[in-house]
Amino acid sequence: MPEASPVSFPSAFLWGAATSAYQIEGAVREDGRTPSIWDTFSHTPGKTAGGETGDIAVDHYHRYRDDVALMKELGLGAYRFSISWPRVQPTGRGPAVQRGLDFYRRLVDELLAAGIKPAVTLYHWDLPQELEDAGGWPERDTAYRFAEYAQIVGEALGDRVEQWITLNEPWCAAFLGYASGVHAPGRTDPAASLRAAHHLNLAHGLGTVALRSVMPAHNSVAISLNTSAVRPLSQQPADLAAAQKIDDLSGGIFHGPILHGAYPQTLLEATAPVTDWSHVEDGDLGLIRQPLDAICLNYYTPTVVSAADADSRVRSSGGHGESDHSPWPAADDVAFHQPPGERTEMGWSVDPTGLHQLIMRYHREAPGLPLYISENGAAYDDKPGADGTVHDPERVAYLDGHLKAVRRAITDGADVRGYYLWSLLDNFEWAYGYEKRFGAVYVDYASQERIPKSSALWYGRAARTGSLPPVESAAE
After folding, report:
1. Where is 5: in which H helix or E strand?
2. What is the mean pLDDT of residues 179-195?
3. Closest by alpha carbon to 179, among 192, 161, 169?
4. How far apart (Å, rounded) are the C-alpha atoms in residues 191 and 9?
5. Distance CA 250, CA 197 (A)
6. Active site residue: 169, 375, 394, 429, which one?
7. End-to-end CA distance of the chain
8. Does position 310 have pLDDT exceeding 70, yes or no?
9. Is the bond into 423 cis (omega within 30 degrees of 0)?
10. Which residues in 381-418 are b (16+ Cβ under 10 Å) and which e?
């Protein structure tokens, strides 16, 4: 039987890896940085596994040169990282702290010297604590503070960084932060979470305008959405209605105004018991709907829902952490289901078809806009073997399956231009502390030693050749 042809990607396809500032940098009190909401949250007893914090994380602030050298050695073509807002603008207002900006200038220079394309995310959940003290994302002013911050960073780095992402997963920032409370700042107010979602949308629009006012016209501005690949448990009307509700709350609430200039009517009707949406002011939707250069998608697992039984309704996060409060406002009548089959350490089902579903959905939702997979990956219980190597065949299989789904979407007509593996390094996994390892590179947290796992070597080979290696080759 002849060997199957290798799965190859277009020659210009971007092969990258991603991280975020609070998860890897450490150095939380150096060079003028002040606390973010995640510093406060992680230092609050009972909020994170083992009371762990990002105070040191994987010490990327001091080890970035070695980390860039490792990326180059692996053969990565791009690196997506986030800027720590309180490192650049400690109070969320006023002039920048140049020492904070200088770190990112050095990082960008190091990447460019290594032939690695930098991609900047402006907001990956680390709101300056002073802005939260003033009300946080439920307050309209926070969106204007974000635009000021975006202009500062755009002026500093826009001459050398071409790819920009305003917000990462605004769904998590709004609903895990302000509805279920499992993420910083840990508030549990459904109405506030919906106001936060709108003001995050407004921040994206205002931030896009601010970036474009100070950067070269050829730079790309996008947003990273983690819209759920929602599937109804059955085709019964009640289950279809449940799927519509979760689809609106995970996706429509963001891409509705961002791409189409309006919130879905079904969303407004479903959330009417929680809010009257009077926080949406005249002109907001026009400010939010700025022309984009790309859409970035984060995907890990599909979401399966049904209508909940009237006598057995339970609050559920849909796999987003345990809480007595739901991250889904006005959706207590929706039940979440765990599909059968393989799961990651997060308890998430492994299903590449959900990634294909999501890509094709946005291919239709935003025709003509390039797409990037800005996060995709899996947590497994990785440990070094007796010989010191870290073999993670489950992650290799996960990446292989999901990259094949991306290639299938390209064949089906979607303009997918790049893929960022989550994550480059094992790191601080938010409320899970250090117990969940998403990295392609193993980190010994005590010594800070980096050990590329077999998945990193496999993915690096794919990045260098543009074709997926045999899964078995990861063991070599």
Report:
1. none
2. 98
3. 192
4. 44
5. 10
6. 375
7. 23
8. no
9. yes
10. ebeeeeeeebbbbbbbbbbbebbebbbbbbeeebbbbb
